[in-house]
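Run: sequence + adenosine-5'-diphosphate -> complex structure.
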Amino acid sequence: MNNEPTKFIDENGLRVDGRRTDEIRPMKVDIGVLSRADGSCYLEWGNNKIISAVYGPRELHPRRMQRPDAAVIRYKYNMASFSVEDRQRPGPSRRSSEISKVSSEAFEPVVMTQFYPNTVIDVFSEVLEADAGTRTAAINAATLALIDAGIPLKSLVSACAVGKVDGQLVLDLNKKEDNEGEADLPVAITQDGEITLLQMDGHLTEDEIKQAMELVKNGCQQIQQIQREALLKKFGQYEGADTEIQ
Ligand code: ADP
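>> structure
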């Protein structure tokens, strides 16, 4: 039996899937794929496959949940039972509730909810195939679905994870790196550089966190570019997206 620890980065500096340490997986985006939703987006990122659908703003029931000064954002992240190798038990879990909560908060600063008092904006992100980074993939898709629904945003939200394997920082972890690596740090950033989601699993030193933030900011910039191109392709122009992540 081979008891050698897994080597994540080879002598040429390449990762198990052939990427450089600062390279994200290929991303493909298709906006407006569902006819019944107000806005939608299908996103593939490496082997992740996600669909996000937005409904609303619509009147919120029960009325006691309404906010008289703003819309309520309700975000639901769900993994399909067939999205992972072992069947995922249907229904909410602690993990999906946590992801739904932090993802909803990732949109709070950018959605102009003040225009829609007493309403709810429902965002559903369904993971059809999971391969690490699904919460960030879902946020990237949900941003485009919100815009497709005609909901005004102050900025795009672009999300990516950074982590550590073989003692080195790497951008956009794949499943093996996520499961067996030393740290995983998913981040969401607005175009103004405001961090709207930041979580951390594992251990990083203060210096490593600083470097990781630079790396992930660069990853989010690449994603923002993909989001902008998808919007241009769909709508011909997107005036709100002419600022890059600061
Ligand atoms: P994220 O998908 O945002 O990176 P996690 O770090 O919690 O979230 O999960 C990493 C990966 O582990 C997921 O993308 C998925 O491939 C896998 N995974 C998560 N939960 C399960 C589960 N219940 N069963 C099987 N695989 C799972």
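>> summary
The beta strands are 27-31, 39-45, 48-59, 72-79, 119-129, 157-165, 168-171, 183-190, 195-198, 201-202. The CA atoms of residues 132 and 175 lie 5 Å apart.
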